[in-house]
Write a structure and sequence with these properties.
mainly beta; 8-stranded mixed β-sheet; 6-stranded antiparallel β-sheet; 4 helices; elongated; disordered N terminus
């Protein structure tokens, strides 16, 4: 089964057209349907992604699919699955002119806020929503104890943390796997979603066409 594709672009909000999805229906063969993807915007809280202490950069486009997996043994059941890209990386580069030795050594804590816009409904359920407790998540943080112990990577340990955080040269990278990012979203309010006919497939495609999601990253300085 092929896919309805949602695309995370790292700096620009883009609604993707011309993506083909072929779910198998009883029409004499597979029928290719032109789909509209969901644009997901990955941005810094500052318009230019720059602060006095440094700046953010984003890399590694991340693909999500709303798919009918062939290996689940259930025909026409739509689920969220990771695409080909394994992770997204949020890179913080300290501004050495700021003269903050702690930030140059350890980086900063980061916060990621999820918001969904034009969250249309299909058959009375919201198509995409945010998983409970995942509207705001945080990076792990390095400490001097880690650095002095020869450790330059921390992995999430608390319920509100996600991903791993590590030093790479003068930069600090918060890496979130596709599966971890996917865990922040819920399809069809957690209920099973079946698109049993081409008409249902087309109606669902139209319903998702205007949805977009913002992942907003900023320096976390505590509440």
């Amino acid at each position: 089964m092929k896919k309805i594709t949602a695309l995370i672009m790292m700096a620009l909000l883009v609604t993707i057209g011309g993506v083909y999805a072929s779910w198998l229906y009883a029409t004499g063969g597979a029928v290719e349907l032109t789909e509209k993807g969901i644009g997901i915007n990955m941005v810094g809280a500052q318009a230019d992604n720059e602060t006095t202490i440094g700046y953010f950069d984003f890399s590694d486009n991340l693909i999500f699919d709303i798919d009918d997996p062939a290996d689940d043994g259930i025909l026409h059941k739509a689920v969220l699955v990771p695409g080909a890209t394994s992770s997204i990386k949020i890179t913080f580069t300290p501004n050495q002119a700021a003269g903050d030795a702690a930030i140059e050594d350890l980086g900063i804590a980061m916060k990621l806020t999820v918001s969904i816009h034009n969250a249309n409904e299909y058959n009375g359920n919201q198509i995409l929503s945010i998983a409970e407790g995942k509207d705001v998540v945080y990076s792990p943080v390095l400490t001097y104890e880690d650095i002095n112990g020869g450790v330059n990577e921390k992995v999430a340990s608390g319920a509100n943390e996600i991903g791993k955080y590590y030093k790479e040269g003068n930069n600090f990278v918060w890496e979130i796997t596709a599966e971890e990012a996917l865990s922040m979203l819920v399809l069809n309010e957690g209920e099973d979603l079946f698109l049993d006919t081409m008409a249902e497939h087309a109606a669902f495609t139209e319903a998702v066409s205007n949805i977009h999601i913002d992942f907003t990253v900023e320096h976390y300085v505590g509440e």
